[in-house]
Amino acid sequence: MQDELKRIEVTAEAEIKNAATLDELEKRRIQFLGREKGALTVILRQLKDLPPEERGKIGEKANGLRERIKQLLDDRAAALRRSSFESVLHRERIDVTRPGHRPARGHLHPITKVLREVEDIFLRMGFTVAEGPEIETEYYNFDALNIPQNHPARDMWDTFWLKNSKSQIPNHKQIPNSKPQITNRTSERLLLRTHTSPVQIRYMETHNPPVRIISPGIVYRHEATDASHDIEFWQIEGLAVDRDISIANFKAVIERFFSELFGKKMAIRLRPSYFPFVEPGFEVDMSCTSCGGKGCTVCQQSGWLEMMGAGMVHPAVFKAVGYNPEEVQGFAFGMGFDRLVMMKYKIPDIRLMRSGDLRFLKQF
Amino acid sequence: MKFSYRWLKALYPKIPPPQKAAKLLTFHAFQVEGMEKVGTDTTLDLDQQVLGVRASDASGHLGIARELAVIRGGGLKTPPVRVKEDPKILAQDLLRVRVETEYVARYSARVLTNITVWPSPKWMQERLITCGIRPINIVVDTTNYIMLETGQPLHAFDYDRLGGAQKEIIARQAKKGETLETLGDDSQSITLAATDIVIADPRGPIGLGGIKGGKGSEIRSGTKRIVIEAANFDPTTIRLTSQRLRLRTDASWRFEHGIAPEMTTYALDRAAELLAKHAHGRIAKGTIDVYPRKEPRRAIPFSPSRAASLMGTLVPEATAVSILKRLGCAVTKKTQGLYPVIPPSHRRDLAIEEDLIEEVARIWGLEKIPAVLPAIHGGVPKKSGRRVFEDALKDRLVGLGFTESHLSSFTGERTLSLFRIPPQALYHLENPTSPEMAMLVSHAVFQYIRSVAENLHHFDAVRIFGIGRNFTKTPAGPAERRSIVIALAERGKDGREEFYALKSVVDALLESFGIADHWYDDGPEALKRHSSWAHPGRVAEVAVDDRMIGVIGELSAEFTLAVKSRGRIVLAEFDIEKLLAEIESEQEFRPIGKYPSVVRDIAVVVPEDIRADDVESIIENTGGELLADSDLFDYFQDKAMTERGEKSLAFHLIFQSPDRTLTDAEVNRVFKKVADAIKAQNWEVRE
């Protein structure tokens, strides 16, 4: 009987190992452990006929063998399941290098993209985003900005005038105890704003200091167009007015703005200049974005790029909006925005901005 | 404006080399825009715009030399004036001057006799050429030379060709219709207006004051006796005349910016001296000088603490005062924290304290001002709700596969007639740069239509959007309505699927902002409103309740052809303000249904002209409260159905109750009710 057990063990080991499918394995289970005719079952059934001293010994061995066969069956079953799973997985394999299905992807205009960055930077520094109309009156575009009629400074802005039009835009704030601001009816003539400075005026008319705003928007100039000039373009102006806003503050705010926008420390420098609505007035240069100041073709070897006009708000402007120039002071700046976007993305021609050409727009 | 480096060096011997001098000027005064070698000399080209405000002191070489000396220190070598008058000839015997207009602040003149008109010396010619002025003869060249030296324009008349027995010069307003023949190669006959200032003799005008001389009294080769004029004219008057006649000269530029009347006699003496030396001139004794009202010189208070506050840094008080003094200002003793400062007469641009602070800051050095972030007081920074909304619209449309486009704000006759828009509703430019950019766009949507058509030349499918500004005239003045335009097109398609594609974009967009109860109005009134541009069978207004917020439709066949589009164009436009008004009501949480829903499908065969909406409204109206929702999931029409003029619509009916689990019997009852209502229309129901 011992020999019989040994034989069963050897056969079971071999045949279970050879079972190729789960079905076959089940047959092997029945062959060895089947309740009716299983080889081991038959042996166990015969135990009762053995003498007691042998019965215990053989019984122990037979039970051990049953456990071992169960273990063999389980292991084989697990192995078979794993390999069948693997073969399914294998069959289901796909070529992951094939391109994916792309959902249609749209694109934001480059102006919008950079504008949002700029707005976020200034919002973080406490500036509100203000807006105003593109059709303006002569008063808001010029007079209120200390650019009186017939002043040569008007030549600095080539203006588009609107045909025989007079404004019904009535929203001037009257300053108590002062003369009405408009003495000249022609100040009501309509034009396309040449800068977003009228937004500053309108904002100050309706808000008390302190004021911190930026005013992005489309402006218009009567100019010949070429790769760097268009008759309409975006501008961003800024204004900060409080009791003690200084040139030092202006330097820090603008340095911070350029540094955040270009993602590295940018240097700025001021040069004296003249704009009627500021005193003192300056031009603002930024260290060249491509050479960092060493001099290259982008900056014409100067190491600097001309970025904006700026200055300390002229007392006449404060008077025009009803602020007391003895009590407040502040800085204002203005920059062509398309140029900044062109610089950031290396766009060679300003006219692409409003071309509507998807070959251009889909690049952003 | 061009300046000669050698000339500057003659006036300011300590001047550094040209590059360095240019840099000093750029960082402390006015930008040097360019430098150019002319022979052995170098020109410095200064920014005319910035120079304009300083025309009074810096439109001559003396002024620029003075500026450099202030910046860098060191003395000027100003030409000494040595006028040797001939005591036997008295100017007042030869000439009388009358000023009859308040727009001439000062009129000074000298008379010279015995003049030989010949070429000017070579050094003078060279300097003129360097500065861009063509030499003519000694008299004309001298007047120009002195203008370039001092900034004071001069004019020379041929004395013997002045009219009248007693020679007289009158500065007066022109009479309307008077004419004048101007001098020079570009001589022209101009008709004067009453606002012009003329220099006249008793017979009539001999020069256009402050702008250009007349031909009649021009210096010729035989001229023997001359009158040199150094006058001061009112800036606005000069500007208006110069603009009206489109006549801009070196003189008019200086006068329109305003120069100091104090300069006239110095310039006259310099000119007389040169002409005596180089043209054998004898200088008649005395200067004729009509100077009715001297402008009083006013002191400007300068407060060192205010300067420190505006600059954000402290310039040592002694340094600030020294800078002002070097600039020629009279600075007297400080009282109550203020220095009274009287600027020199040539600095007419210094009028308020901020002007003085600028002088101190720029001479001291703007680069020395530190960068200090300001303290932020008051107010919460924000973007307007509309801006935030537009940003969100853009982001969602980009997510839906559309590309943002910016288009021109201008349009013209050709585009208007293409879309049959009457031009009188538009704002026209007074001075357009081209006919197709002569008006402001009133319907941004047409710009986008054209852009789609253009892009279809390069792409099979186009999906664009943009925020358009629609400029219109209203009784209340100009309106700048903002709208969002969404357009799509695909080459070679019939537009049908494109319409539904755009419609689903519109639905997704509106739903993303919480607008789910909008509907599409294709009623006759709505159709009529868009008949001018849209396909009559493919257009609807989008409304919430009875409020129209936008429109969706396919471009009419006529316009599609007119814009040469290679595909049907479907577009939607929404008014930003109206859209914003709909989403402004706050979104609120609705409880999630606790009991399961049951879905049953129903297919309905209906005649072709019955709209999905018609069937759905019967379903919704008969379903009662247990029918929670219904939606069309299949729209089918095979060939046989097409021939019979039928189509099949299949709907999901979703049954749900907020307070219990529905039984089959309940659902069946409602479903039968719906089916019966449909059958009552004589439509076939397939379950």
From TrEMBL, chain A:
Xref: SUPFAM superfamilies: Class II aaRS and biotin synthetases, tRNA-binding arm
Positions contributing to Mg(2+) binding: E279
Alphabetical list of NCBIfam families matching this protein: pheS
Gene that this sequence comes from: pheS
Subcellular location: Cytoplasm
GO molecular function annotation: ATP binding; magnesium ion binding; phenylalanine-tRNA ligase activity; tRNA binding
Stretches that traverse the bilayer: none
Name used for this protein in its record: Phenylalanine--tRNA ligase alpha subunit
Pfam families named among the record's database cross-references: Phe_tRNA-synt_N, tRNA-synt_2d
Main EC class the enzyme belongs to: ligase
Coiled-coil segments: none
TrEMBL record, chain B:
SUPFAM superfamilies listed in its UniProt record: Anticodon-binding domain of PheRS, Class II aaRS and biotin synthetases, PheT/TilS domain, Putative DNA-binding domain
An example molecular function term from Gene Ontology annotations: magnesium ion binding
Cofactor: Mg(2+)
Cofactor note: Binds 2 magnesium ions per tetramer.
Catalysed reactions listed for this entry: tRNA(Phe) + L-phenylalanine + ATP = L-phenylalanyl-tRNA(Phe) + AMP + diphosphate + H(+)
GO BP annotations, alphabetical order: phenylalanyl-tRNA aminoacylation
Domain of life: Bacteria
Keywords of this entry: Aminoacyl-tRNA synthetase, ATP-binding, Cytoplasm, Ligase, Magnesium, Metal-binding, Nucleotide-binding, Protein biosynthesis, RNA-binding, tRNA-binding
Subcellular location field: Cytoplasm
Residues covered by the FDX-ACB domain: 593-686
UniProt binding sites for Mg(2+): D349, D355, E358, E359
SMART domains: B3_4, B5, FDX-ACB
GO cellular component: phenylalanine-tRNA ligase complex
HAMAP family per record: Phe_tRNA_synth_beta1
PANTHER family with a match to the protein in the record: PHENYLALANINE--TRNA LIGASE BETA SUBUNIT, PHENYLALANYL-TRNA SYNTHETASE BETA CHAIN AND LEUCINE-RICH REPEAT-CONTAINING PROTEIN 47
Subunit structure comment from the entry: Tetramer of two alpha and two beta subunits.
Protein name, per record: Phenylalanine--tRNA ligase beta subunit
Source organism (scientific name): Candidatus Sungbacteria bacterium RIFCSPLOWO2_01_FULL_59_16
